[in-house]
Every structure is written in C-alpha cells, then in structure tokens.
Amino acid sequence: MREKFHVLFLCTANSARSIMAEAILARTAPTRFAAFSAGSHPAGAVNPTVLELLERLEFSTAGLRSKSWDEFAAADAPRLDFVFTVCDRAAAETCPVWPGQPMTAHWGIADPARDGGDELARLQRFRTAFAEIERRIGLFVNLPFAALDELRLQQALDDIGRR
Predict the structure, then answer these.
(1) How many CB atoms lie within 10 A of CB 77?
(2) Which domain covers residue 59, as residue numbers?
(3) pTM for the whole thing?
(4) Where are the alpha helices (DSSP H) in the chain?
(5) How far apart are CA 130 and CA 140, in angstroms?
(6) Residue 150's CB: how many other CB atoms inside 10 A?
(7) Is residue 11 part of a domain?
(8) Pairing label, strands 33-39, 103-106
(9) What is the Cα–Cα distance from 63 to 37, expressed in whole angstroms?
C-alpha cells in the first residue's frame, strides 16, 4: 500500500464540483491523500460561489484553479491511484490514459451551477452538492484499503457513487 494515494476528481468545466472535491479531500485527510481536480473542457476560472462557500467554511482556496485533464495525462504527471468523475458529462467522455492505471468510479453529483431559481435556490444547490461530495469523501477515506483486494475495493468505490 502506498504511503499517500493520489486522487483526481474530474468534471467537465473543473469549476465547481471537482474543485469542491479537491478542497474537501485535501482538508479531510492530507497525510493520506494528495487531491487534484481537472476538467475535459475547463472553464478557466473557479466558480465564485464555490470560492465563497469554501472560504465561509474555512477551507483553503490557495492553489485552486480550473485546469485541463491533459495536465494529468502527461509523462511528468503524478501517478494516480484513483480517478473519480463527479459529473455525468465527464463520465461519458473518453478520458486520457492516466499514468499508474488508477481505479476509477463515477460519483455523479447534480450540477449546482445550472440555471434556474432565485439566488437562494442557487446557493442551496451549491450547499447540497458540497454536502453530498463531503459525505462520499468521508466514506472513501474510511475504507479499509489494506484489507480490501482490488475487486472489493472497486465494488466499494462504485457503491459510494450509488449512495
């Protein structure tokens, strides 16, 4: 078992859900996991509501940026252990070949940045997405990695996405 697992969260724009996942995992278990996020078609900027929410919850936003998944397919990229898609569009796309042949799972989360509703409804969508991601990451970091063979670990990762 590795000393520190490298985890990549993918979303199409890499501006909201995957950014939240990166920040949550980075704070939840920084000594066991290195968290990253990327997008297939990055927006180029983190959604301001995500930054506001993270700062309000006293998460570090230093270094968070919208970036392409190509950065993690390069020869000098970190060797990935896990790749999780957090949006349905990214899950349906053909991903690059990741260094290290990581385990993958789809943890689809509704897009909080979609249009519709008033300001209060929009903020609630972001809070709901955050809570759902935080719950899944909590389940993930508490898996008994050393006790699970590859098949059981993959089943556990898939189960987290279905919850």
Answers:
(1) 19
(2) 5-157
(3) 0.94
(4) 17-28, 48-56, 88-92, 119-141, 150-162
(5) 15
(6) 8
(7) yes
(8) unpaired
(9) 11
CATH number of the domain at 112, please. 3.40.50.2300
Q: Is 49 inside a domain boundary?
A: yes
Tokens of 147: 């006790």
Instruction: Phi first, then psi: give them for residue 150, nearest 5 degrees.
Output: -60, -40
Q: How far apart are CA 81 and CA 99, in angstroms?
A: 9
Q: What is the pLDDT along the chain (163 residues), one digit of tens a residue?
A: 567 999 999 999 999 999 999 999 999 999 999 999 999 999 999 999 999 999 999 999 999 999 999 999 888 899 999 999 998 775 566 677 787 789 999 999 999 988 777 889 999 999 999 999 999 999 999 999 999 999 999 999 999 999 8
* Residue 43 resides in a domain: yes
What is the spatial distance between Cα 17 and Cα 111, in angstroms, rounded to a whole number? 7
Break the chain down into helix, strand, coil percent, rounded to 5.
40, 15, 45
- Tell me the torsion sign for CA atoms 24, 45, 111, 161: negative
Residue type for position 68: S
Any alpha helices (H) in 4-118, and if so which ranges?
Answer: 17-28, 48-56, 88-92
Give residue for tokens 């697992």: 5
Other beta carbons less than 10 A from residue 78's beta carbon: 17
